[in-house]
Amino acid sequence: MSSIPNAEDLYQTLLNQLREQKRISPDFQLAGLASGGAWVAERLTKDLGLSSHGVINVSFHRDDYAEKGIKALNSSEGMSTKLPFEVEGAHIILVDDVLDTGRTVRAALNELFDYGRPAKVDLAVLADRHRRQLPVDATFKGAKVKVADDQILVLEQLDDGRFSFSVEAQ
Amino acid sequence: MPKTSKTASQLQLNDQGELTHLLTLEGLSKEHILHILDTAQQFVAVSDSDREVKKVPLLRGKNVFNLFFENSTRTRTTFEIAAKRLSADVVNLDIQTSSTAKGETLLDTIDNLVAMQADIFVVRHKTTGAAVEVAQHLPPHVHVINAGDGTNQHPTQGLLDMYTMRHFKQDFTKIKVAIIGDIVHSRVAKSNIHALTTLGCPEIRAIGPESLLPKDLNMMGVKIYNNIEEGLKGVDVVMTLRIQKERMEAGQVPEGDEFFKQWGLTKERLQLAKPDAIVMHPGPMNREVEIASDVADGPQAVILKQVTFGIAVRMAVMSIVAGN
Questions:
Q1: Which residue among A94, B8, B22, B128 has its CA within the 20 to 30 Å range from the CA of A81?
Q2: Which of B125, B121, B157, B124 is closest to B20 using CA atoms?
């Protein structure tokens, strides 16, 4: 049996890694993947004392349109891509709640590059399920987690801003 | 007309109740309409100025055929732009010089295009029910979007009008909408009336001379005004329509000047509507016939916004039907 990871612990680990990154090289922009990743990016922005963060909606570049149609487009709670900084030449850290197959990150890279050519892109995630189907890895991660194959890990943000994970049937 | 419309509203859904063609707004559920409007809202962002690549790959490798048996520059162009922003390949058939002109039937034309791997047909035709006929004839993986059939329906125009109203007025259940002019020949008016009714609009008014108002408006819950000043009082949305001379018999309406005097939307008349009322027109406009120039170019006009939103709405419709 796998246990549900503690999202707050993972968040603190991730925050510490990004604090260290900021100390070494402070010149980066955060872009959260809608919708869970955008919540994490928003909180990181506050805790790191950054001025703003971007949001990326991957819907236009998903690779399952042929199977699922457009339904997936509206699953991001109406968050559209918003990048309030120059993408061209920037160091951008993509932020997501869960890294799994890597397909969402592939779509996010395509969406990002529709706005310009960044100098460097990193990835920061709370939880890494490590069931990769594409050559993608995270530079910063809260922890590797184990969840039963037929379950998905869902991030929730509580009223006080704290995070919690739950599992749902796939 | 009612018989084909009933068939049309059933025909446009697949066995799972998903939209697989868009043929009519009559009988299309509120959920389907809102899903299209919400999806269109996402697509508006594709045209954002800070997005360098104003194109998304959803319909990459799909073939869209624009079949316009009636002329239309605006609608055909916005469908073409919408398809191209979705990365589809678009073929515009010039009907005047095509095989149809040599006597080929509509369905034979369709069969040949299906054999060329068509995925979506955008059909405009002067005959009521033409798009329905095409939809009935097609294999299930091919989709039809009605871009106007005779005086019957123009669903994407109706949807972009709904998008425009929601953008400026938010809540359909709190607005009064007045439609002025040639309603009897207007598929746009019909599509709008159906959609507004479905979305819970409490008051739809039709303003115009008796000869231009269809007899069944009362049954559709529309209030009839034969006096423009009365009809405009307190409305939130004013929709003017083009006088469709090509569909009329001689003498059916007063000529240009006379029509404008009685039914034209002037600045003075617009003041009878709510101060923040918006003015819409599906185009093409006849200035100083149904609408005064200073109203068409005035601060309350959202006519060009309708055109811009039309692209996002058509992207939404194409990507929804092609995915089902």
A1: B22
A2: B121
Residue B159 has phi, psi (to 5 degrees) of: -70, -40
Nearest to A81 among B18, B45, B324 (CB): B45
CA–CA distance, B42 with B163 (Å, rounded to integer): 12
Set of chain B residues whose Cβ sits within 8 Å of the Cβ of A81: 45, 51
* Cα–Cα distance for residue pair B295/A91, rounded to 1 Å: 49
Q: Which residue of B has its CA nearest to A85?
A: B50
Confidence of residue B4 (pLDDT cuts 50, 70, 90): very low
Torsion of CA B302, B303, B304, B308, to 10 degrees: 90
- Cβ-Cβ contacts under 8 Å, A79 against chain B: none
Q: Tokens for B308?
A: 């811009």
Residues in chain B, total: 324
pLDDT classification of B2: cutoffs 50, 70, 90: very low
Q: What are the CA-CA distances from residue A81 to residues A38, A132, A152 (Å)?
A: 10, 25, 24
Q: B190-215, pLDDT tens digit by residue?
A: 999 999 999 999 999 999 999 899 98
Residues in Cβ contact with B175 at an 8 Å cutoff, skipping those fewer than 6 apart: B165, B169, B201, B202, B203, B236, B237
Chain A closest CA to B160's CA: distance in Å?
19
Which residue type, as a one-letter code, is found at position A62?
A: R
In this predicted model, what pLDDT tens digit does every residue of B63-111 receive, in sequence order? 999 999 888 888 999 999 999 999 999 999 877 666 666 677 888 989 9
Chain A residues with CB under 8 Å of B324 CB are 69
When the pLDDT of each residue in chain B is averaged and rounded to a whole number, the result is 92
Task: Please give the residue of chain B at the shortest CA–CA distance from A86.
Answer: B50
User: Which residue, B181, B171, B236, is CA-closest to B211?
Assistant: B181
**Cα angle value B49/B50/B51 (rounded, 5°):** 90
C-beta of residue B54 within 8 angstroms of C-beta of residue B67: no
Mean pLDDT for B275-297 is: 95
- Reading the block at residue B17, the tokens are 């109740």
What was the pLDDT predicted at A75?
64
Residue B55: list chain A partners with CB under 8 A.
114
Q: Using the beta-carbon criterion (under 8 Å), do B42 and A61 form an inter-chain contact?
A: no
Which H or E element spans position B42?
helix B30-44
The answer to whether the CB atoms of B56 and A115 lie below 8 A apart is no
Strands B63-68 and B120-125: parallel
Give this prediction's pTM.
0.89
Distance separating alpha carbons of residues B203 and B206, to the nearest angstrom: 10
User: Which residues of chain B neighbour A70 with C-beta distances below 8 Å?
Assistant: 39, 58, 316, 319-320, 323
B161's torsion region: left (phi>0), alpha (psi -120 to 50) or beta?
alpha
